[in-house]
Amino acid sequence: MQKFLLHTCCAPCSIAVIDELKNQYDLTVFFYNPNIYPEEEYLKRKQEVVKICQEWGVPIVDHDYNETDLWNKAVLGFEEEPEGGTRCAVCLRFRMAKTVEYAQLHGFNYWGTSLTSGRNKSAAVIGGIGKAFGKIHKKTKFYNVDWKKGGRQEKAVKLVVERQIYRQNYCGCKFSMEKNYEG
Ligand code: SF4
User: Fold this and answer.
1) How many Å lie between the centroid of ligand 1 and the Cα of residue 35?
2) DSSP conformation class of 82
3) Fewer CB within 10 Å, N or C, the chain?
């Protein structure tokens, strides 16, 4: 079975994706989200992803939350950007960069992110970032899917309700929390 590294930011975004990929690939989940604020929220979201992975026997890499300073520096000057603007593109790229680096270093055939599940996340932007990384990291292939499509969003809603999974009401960073951006 081919190895797949899936970046994810929370359980509601990833549950249907993990469910689908775990049967097709040797799947590992990659949790890397130094954008999430505050830390209690980060831990809550991570705990829900860990719970799913443990139940389904999917390995999870719990990557570095201490890189919040780096993330803050990366988005400096873009604080007032609207959702879907430059700050979000920088944020998506930041997390995807770490994912592809890890995938290449650890011999994953494929890498991807469940971020396209977010109703306000542009699959075109995420796909563009993934393809650009493909020109640099040639040993691992970007799996380019809009996870909102194909009935997966409906499936995710059902699974979240059934399992009483915590669903946040903002995308993740402090700016989205203040403005109630849903991600
Ligand atoms: S709104 Fe979401 S995607 Fe945009 S910068 Fe904040 S956490 Fe990142």
Assistant:
1) 7
2) P
3) N
The ligand 1 site (C-beta within 6 Å) comprises 35, 83, 87-88, 91, 171-173, 175-176, 181, 183
32 Cα–ligand 1 center, Å: 13
For the CA of 115, the closest atom of ligand 1 is 3
**Ligand 1 atom 4 nearest Cα:** 88
> How many Å apart are CA 69 and CA 112, to the nearest integer?
24
Calculate how far, in angstroms, residue 87's C-alpha sits from the geometric centre of ligand 1: 7
Tokens 């809603």 sit at which residue? 157
pLDDT tens, position by position, 55-67: 999 999 999 999 9
Specify the pTM.
Answer: 0.96
Mutation choice for ligand 1 from 45, 125, 168, 175, CB with most ligand atoms inside 8 A: 175
Q: Where are the domains of the chain?
A: 3-179
Residue 37 has pLDDT above 90, yes or no: yes
Place 92 in a pLDDT band, splitting at 50, 70 and 90. very high
Determine what percent of the chain is predicted with pLDDT higher than 70: 98
CATH number of 3-179: 3.40.50.620
Between the two ends of the chain, the Cα-to-Cα distance in Å is 33
